[in-house]
Amino acid sequence: MSEVPLAKEAADAAPPAEDLVVLDKVNKHFGALHVLQDINLTIKRGEVVVVIGPSGSGKSTLCRAINRLETIDDGSITIDGRPLPEEGRELARLRADVGMVFQSFNLFPHRTVLDNVALGPIKVRGQDKSLARTRAQALLDRVGVGNQAGKYPAQLSGGQQQRVAIARALAMEPKVMLFDEPTSALDPEMINEVLEVMQQLAREGMTMVVVTHEMGFARSAANRVVFMADGRIVEEADPHQFFDNPRSDRAKDFLSKILAH
Ligand SMILES: Nc1ncnc2c1ncn2[C@@H]1O[C@H](COP(=O)(O)OP(=O)(O)OP(=O)(O)O)[C@@H](O)[C@H]1O
Ligand SMILES: [Mg+2]
């Protein structure tokens, strides 16, 4: 780690450089529904945090708030020591720092796979076209779909499309990647190929927030599990402690239900 940015951050009295994403007393309502309630959460550089919890507990809203697809009512969210910008150019730049992969892949249907990955760097980062395409090809190779580069999304399997979506997010060189149930729309045989790519990213040191009910992934890749219920973080623990020995009744109840099927 270089000493220059550390010294600068110390001078600015910014939070320690190891804290990459910090949510401080974040609240969010949808009308009368208090969907995020006093959320305090710090994600360190290189950390993999799995967010788990019942349907409607606020997991997606939390992810969407982190890259400001949703506004928050009060509290603060900082990325790498900088508060989330309200709008405009700064917001676009921040969004580029936060990669997002959803359950539905959201690829551009009329663009080739290669163009889907190269487009962001060209349009948002102003990257040279041929450089962006070379990098896009390398990323597609990395996630195992390099030989699909010339096809259109509809010609790929769900697992392949989701790996393209991951490559597209990585192309922006994000500081943190958010995954919101990335495998839940996939046929069972395609889940593993996507989880494998995510495991590899985790091993390479990518900072990741992953909403998933994939216990195997949580156990082997997560540094921490955050359990949400009714808009609150009810429990935080390392994955082994959480799955083998949950403390709260809510977590025990939830785990007994998902382990039952
Ligand atoms: N745009 C919206 N307008 C109104 N209510 C919303 C909106 N988005 C989400 N909600 C509500 O907020 C609550 C939290 O939703 P959220 O999608 O964050 O839950 P979740 O934990 O991701 O659930 P799931 O596991 O089903 O994906 C739910 O009650 C949901 O119905
Ligand atoms: Mg959700």
UniProtKB/TrEMBL annotation:
Residues 21-255 form the ABC transporter domain. InterPro entries: AAA+_ATPase (IPR003593), ABC_ATPase_HisP-typ (IPR030679), ABC_transporter-like_ATP-bd (IPR003439), ABC_transporter-like_CS (IPR017871), MetN_ABC_transporter-like (IPR050086), P-loop_NTPase (IPR027417). It comes from the Bacteria. Keywords: Amino-acid transport, ATP-binding, Cell membrane, Membrane, Nucleotide-binding, Transport. It is found in: Cell membrane. Its main location: membrane. Its EC number is 7.4.2.1. It is a peripheral membrane protein. It catalyses: a polar amino acid(out) + ATP + H2O = a polar amino acid(in) + ADP + phosphate + H(+). One of its GO terms (cellular component) is plasma membrane. It is an enzyme of class 7 (translocase). One of its GO terms (molecular function) is ATP hydrolysis activity. The keyword Lipid metabolism does not apply. Belongs to the ABC transporter superfamily. This is ABC-type polar-amino-acid transporter. It comes from Streptomyces radicis.
